[in-house]
Write a sequence for this structure.
């Protein structure tokens, strides 16, 4: 008696999904092993489960790095360099944001103002007024809370 076909879609129940993942992982590892033995193929299989668990299969006498390096030499694609360049670009963007924030902090402290245009100075002044208004609002709410405590809870020590 054969098995019935199942609909290929995400299993909603997390326990059933994890059990299915575990069984199918073992099956695909077995297939990868059979492929490497029968065909003398270099196989590297990397899997990351939904629970962020890492599983890896590599055929005997090889490593995932060796397989990736061989893939790169055959295709002429340098995966490591591409990834490195993306990380460098991201780092440059983060450094730019960091420098802008540091400049803004210095300007709010009254430093580095000589290079600002009249419009930038005006915007800085408006931002400072908005910040002062927020600080005053917070101060009033804290003072009101302290007054409330003194009136309704007079036995509390300051």
């Amino acid at each position: 008696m054969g098995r019935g076909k199942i609909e290929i879609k995400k299993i909603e129940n997390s326990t059933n999904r994890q059990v299915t993942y575990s069984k199918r992982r073992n099956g695909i590892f077995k297939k990868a092993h059979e492929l490497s033995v029968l065909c003398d193929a270099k196989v590297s299989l990397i899997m990351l489960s939904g629970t962020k668990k890492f599983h890896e299969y590599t055929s005997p006498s090889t490593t995932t790095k060796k397989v990736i390096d061989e893939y790169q030499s055959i295709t002429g694609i340098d995966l490591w360099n591409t990834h490195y360049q993306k990380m460098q670009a991201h780092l440059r963007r983060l450094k730019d944001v960091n420098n802008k924030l540091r400049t803004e902090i210095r300007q709010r402290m009254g430093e580095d103002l000589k290079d600002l245009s009249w419009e930038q100075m005006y915007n800085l002044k408006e931002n400072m007024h908005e910040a002062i208004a927020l600080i005053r609002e917070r101060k009033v709410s804290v003072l009101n809370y302290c007054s409330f405590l003194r009136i309704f809870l007079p036995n509390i020590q300051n």
